[in-house]
Amino acid sequence: MENRDGSPTFAEKMSNPAFMSVVFEGDKREVRSLYNKMKRLQERKESLVENGFFEKKRWLGNLVTRLGEDYREVYCRGTWEFLTMRGNKVSFLTETAWQPPFALLRMIQRHYPSLQFFFEAEGDDWDAYVTNDDAGRYFPSRYIVDCEPDIEYFDTIEEACSHLSAYTGMEITPTWEALEEAANDWNNCHEESDWPVGVKRIEVISNDELWE
């Protein structure tokens, strides 16, 4: 059940999070304009638009509204944080319900034509790990290995397999299939473990493949 502004209930938001790291780069004036709009929104005494999110002032719908569009027509069920500007780049992280706000990226680009966006998005509940950064300029990681005591990101399959091999004590051929098999074998032999091994592959997709 949704709140009246389209935001998820607290229980839904906590059980279906999607995270996306974003970098916009381009003309410094446009970068600064976007940064200043977001910064002023999060520094307001009250949210620009009333909403049901915990971080009300950093609700993505406020940015949609500030750019003159209707938040009911752009997927924005989430918030941003870690807003940073360096030179001709502005970056932030979004946490949204169910899926990343790709439509928001396109909307920002319509308002700031010089800007290009790069992202890495992930979420267990929608079972997808994707990036459009094919050259790895900002998001070079392509594999994730989740084993005690932490989750680690790796640029190459060789690094990922080496890490899991050191954890399990088993030699792993540097292929995605072997990495998956090693994780499954370990979990089958350690069914009582409080920390099952998980591996993910970050898929490179084009902007034409983004969904809204």
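That was protein one. Protein two is written in the same sequence-then-structure order:
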Amino acid sequence: MPVSQPTSIQRPSPVALHRAEVKRPRGRPRKTAEDRDDGNRRAALLQAAAALFRRKGFAATTTRDIAAAAGMQSGSPFYHFKSKDALLFAVMEEGMTSALARQHTTLALSRAANPLAQLRGLVHAHFLVLLGPQSDFIPVMLYESRSLKPAQREKLSALQSQYENLWVPVLKALHASGHLRAPVVLARLLILGALNWSVQWFDPHKKASVDDLSDAAMALFVGGSVASS
């Protein structure tokens, strides 16, 4: 019976060892500093675009204007958004998403309060969305939505419906208690329409504050008092 010869052990070549050493570990690669800054850059673009769209109008604003306002190269916006149209929709979507989050928080904090106090909270939060710091997003939506494509307008309409529906239970409770005499559907439309118009005439350099506006709106809509239920 022939004796088998011992097989020689093949050692990996230096090239294979080097490849094994430099092979990327499994899992997601680590983000570079530039990658981690993408979120900040996108936020800066949205803020700059919102301010320019509000001040100059969508048609008169160029992507070069937006990039300059955000401190970026002229082509940088297209790294984050395919077109100026996409950037306009992103501004409006960001505005509505932030407004929804603010109103959800407002209602959560006032859950134990009476409906009058809840309404004042909604009114005050809405004024902050329209007139507070970095408040260009919703005014752009109010006056530039005609520039959206039908599919974009449909998505935005769904967000608007969610926002407006948050007001309905509060208004129904006020109607049931007699504090709100107008039909709830019409009251919602009239209240939001009146609040939204404030972006046309409000001057932050004059004496009236957001708190003053909120008190005046409550006096106009439901007689003003939030202490009684």
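The chain has 13 helices and no strands. Keep this in mind for the problem set.
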